[in-house]
Amino acid sequence: MSTVCLPSEAMAAELPAGVKILIWTGHGDPPEGIEDTEFLVGEYMAGPLAERALARMPNLRVIQLLSAGVEPWLPLVPDGVTLCNGRGVHGGSTAELAVAGLLSLLRELPHFHDEQHAGRWSPSHSDDLDGKRVLILGAGDIGRRVAAAVRVFDAVCTFVARSARDGIRAIDELPTLLPEHDIVVVSLPHTDETHHLVDARFLAALPDGARVVNISRGTIVDTDALLAELEAGRLSAFLDVTDPEPLPADHPLWRAPNVLITPHVGGGTTGWAKRGNRLVREQIARFVAGEDLVNVVGDSY
Fold it and tell me: How far is CA 244 from the centre of its chain?
């Protein structure tokens, strides 16, 4: 019998036969039998378990997360333990927010919101996606969903990833790609390679009037460099993530022109728990049956 440790009772429904269920968030006293845990599900948005909590599980073989990002967990995963992320749980809602934010910039919705509250009927022309060249950093679930959405409105998309392959350009091609694109959507994981990838040189290579959308990790963008471009009026941005995060109330990014900010809510929709629970059930069924798991995080993360 396999022992699985879940952060909530809600995930325990419809699990396969032959599974012993423990409920523990990783905080407070662990339940009896925690040392038998083979499959651990991390609590969403709660951060990683402490090393001492993981040390209570000598038989651990799999850690399943409900987030796409896994950076805080990487240094803590014991040798021989497989780490899986929540790819697919938040992809649709995060891509949805990226497109919503981009359209808000293009159609100047914050401006019209201000006009509404001032009681002014002031029609004006705004921009659109037709013919826009969209550079999508990251060719995973979120990036592909963004591309599918904006292509409906006749945008042209280019994917960029760590290495080139069919239909995807390599990161080292960015210097030649950036001047040719009107919009950049950041949907990469944060790694040593992507830290401050969007820096002053990156931003300066974009054409005047370009839009930057970041719905992955704030640390991929150099905040000071972006702030300088926003204050100069050359670029605009939609940010669901920032660096630092949470953004302090006195941070100048809040009051910068040409920026729309949401507080890291890309995955925060009512349907995420249903999708997360389904992924957990499917992964545990594969584990019990000895089948390959999905969403395994490898060295290339």
Answer: 16
DSSP for the chain, written as a single string = -EEEEES-GGGGTTPPSSEEEEE--SSSSPPTTGGG--EEEPPTTS-PPPHHHHTT-TT--EEE-SSS--TTTGGGPPTT-EEE--TTTSHHHHHHHHHHHHHHHHTTHHHHHHHHHTT---------STT-EEEEE--SHHHHHHHHHHHHTT-EEEEEESS-BTTEEEGGGHHHHGGG-SEEEE-PPP-TTTTT-B-HHHHHTSPTT-EEEE-S-GGGB-HHHHHHHHHTTS-EEEESS-SSSSPPTT-GGGG-TTEEE--S-TT-STTHHHHHHHHHHHHHHHHHHTPPPSSB--TT-
Which residues have CB under 8 Å from 196's CB, separation 6+?
A: 219, 220, 221, 222
Dist. CA 270–CA 94, nearest whole Å? 13
Q: What is the pLDDT of residues 156-195, one digit of tens each?
A: 999 999 889 999 999 999 999 999 999 999 999 898 999 9
Contacts of 75 (CB under 8 A, 6+ apart): none
φ and ψ of 88, to 5 deg: 100, -25
Known catalytic residues?
A: 217, 245, 264
Q: Provide the whole-model pTM.
A: 0.88
- Kindly report, residue by residue over 184-222, the tens digit of the pLDDT: 999 998 989 999 999 999 999 999 999 999 999 999 999
Residue 301 has pLDDT above 90, yes or no: no
**Rounded to the nearest 5°, which phi and psi values hold at 62?**
-140, 135
Phi-psi map region of 28: left, alpha, beta (phi>0 left; psi -120 to 50 alpha): left
